[in-house]
């Protein structure tokens, strides 16, 4: 839900309707999908397997939310990985029903607990409560006598600006740690991703094309990312620095380049380990 907070908050400010959907059973994550009138969609849930189901619920434009129960079909199973016949449940709630203070908290990447009172599958009330455990590192959902409480905690995101074996190895290492890695070679898309990064997140810039890598590195430096890494030789780092200087970007003190700890890494997998280890140190130790 952190990923859609900026867009939903903008809808709330402009008076535009938005309906927010997220899964509450059997798997729990911070994924959410927002629907706007006219077919607009923001975010993703379970790889889009249930978009049609959720869109139909949102299209009803009810004043209160609903709890949806569904059985996974064969096609949905292929998309989301859940077994065919699995019982799944979602909440679809109009943004106007959420407490307005929720969106600033999500934008600040704070842990939140969203308690929905459900009567005969109608969400009659939504309120914020104190998260049960502020030390939790994964989202969770609790069911208690007509009350569904979704606790969200921010998960570290790793934007990998580039593609190739090192990018794939970095994504695998990030996923192993429970992070949310995104491999994106397009500078324009990287800039959009960078804008939502927080001090809990990181970005690694790959690639030998100076223009592309320079644009991605500029986006990283404009973000609030807690770790910025640039892969490449010292000569490549110097070329990027000159490219940035021509665009009035001269403070590169945040850039770890060449990215990665000095452990004699060879090959994409070892390079990825060295970069991820450096990122952990930067995020935890500052």
How would you describe this protein?
The structure is a single chain. Helix 6 (187-194) packs parallel to helix 7 (210-222). Helices cover 34% and strands 27% of the residues. The protein has 2 domains: 2-152, no CATH class; 157-285, Rossmann fold. It is elongated and about 65 Å long. It is built from 9 helices and 14 strands.
The share of residues in helices is 25-40%
- Report the β-strand fraction as a percent range: 25-35%
Radius of gyration, CA atoms, in whole angstroms: 21 Å
Give the end-to-end Cα distance, rounded to a whole number of Å: 26 Å
Q: Could you say which overall geometry the principal axes of the C-alpha atoms support?
A: elongated
How is the largest sheet built, in terms of strand order? 3-2-1-5-4-7-6-9-8
- Please tally the β strands and state the result: 14
Total domain modules: 2
Which series of helices and strands comes N to C?
A: HEEEHEHEHEEEEEHEHEHEHEH
Content-based structural category: alpha/beta
How many H/I helical runs?
9
Largest sheet descriptor = 9 strands, antiparallel
Low-confidence stretches: none
Mean pLDDT: 93
List the topology elements:
Layout: H1 5-14, E1 19-25, E2 33-36, E3 40-43, H2 51-59, E4 65-71, H3 74-80, E5 87-94, H4 102-107, E6 112-119, E7 122-129, E8 140-143, E9 147-152, E10 157-161, H5 165-176, E11 180-184, H6 187-194, E12 202-205, H7 210-222, E13 227-230, H8 234-245, E14 255-256, H9 267-285
Parallel strand pairs: 10-11, 10-12, 12-13, 13-14
Antiparallel strand pairs: 1-2, 1-5, 2-3, 4-5, 4-7, 6-7, 6-9, 8-9
Helix pairs in contact: 5-9, 6-7, 7-8
């Amino acid at each position: 839900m952190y990923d859609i907070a900026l867009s939903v908050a903008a809808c709330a400010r402009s008076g535009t309707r938005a309906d927010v959907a997220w899964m509450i059973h059997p798997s729990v994550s911070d994924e959410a999908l927002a629907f706007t009138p006219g077919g607009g969609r923001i975010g993703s849930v379970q790889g889009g397997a249930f978009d049609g189901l959720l869109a139909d619920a949102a299209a009803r434009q009810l004043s209160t939310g609903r709890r949806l129960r569904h059985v996974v079909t064969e096609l949905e199973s292929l998309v989301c990985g859940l077994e065919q016949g699995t019982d799944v449940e979602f909440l679809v709630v109009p943004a106007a029903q959420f407490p307005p203070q929720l969106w600033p908290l999500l934008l600040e990447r704070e842990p939140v607990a969203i308690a929905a009172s459900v009567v005969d599958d109608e969400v009659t009330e939504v309120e914020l409560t104190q998260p049960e455990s502020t030390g939790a590192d994964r989202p969770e959902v609790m069911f208690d006598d007509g009350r569904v409480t979704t606790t969200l905690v921010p998960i570290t995101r790793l934007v990998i600006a580039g593609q190739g074996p090192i990018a794939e190895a970095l994504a695998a290492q990030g996923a192993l740690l429970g992070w949310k890695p995104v491999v994106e070679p397009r500078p324009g898309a990287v800039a959009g991703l960078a804008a939502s990064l927080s001090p809990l997140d990181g970005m690694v810039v790959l690639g030998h094309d100076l223009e592309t890598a320079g644009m991605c590195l500029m986006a990283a430096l404009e973000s609030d990312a807690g770790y910025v890494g640039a892969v490449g030789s010292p000569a490549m780092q110097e070329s990027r620095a000159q490219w940035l200087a021509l665009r009035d970007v001269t403070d590169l003190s945040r850039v770890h380049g060449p990215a990665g700890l000095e452990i004699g890494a060879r090959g994409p997998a070892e390079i990825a380990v060295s970069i991820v280890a450096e990122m952990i140190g930067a995020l935890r130790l500052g």
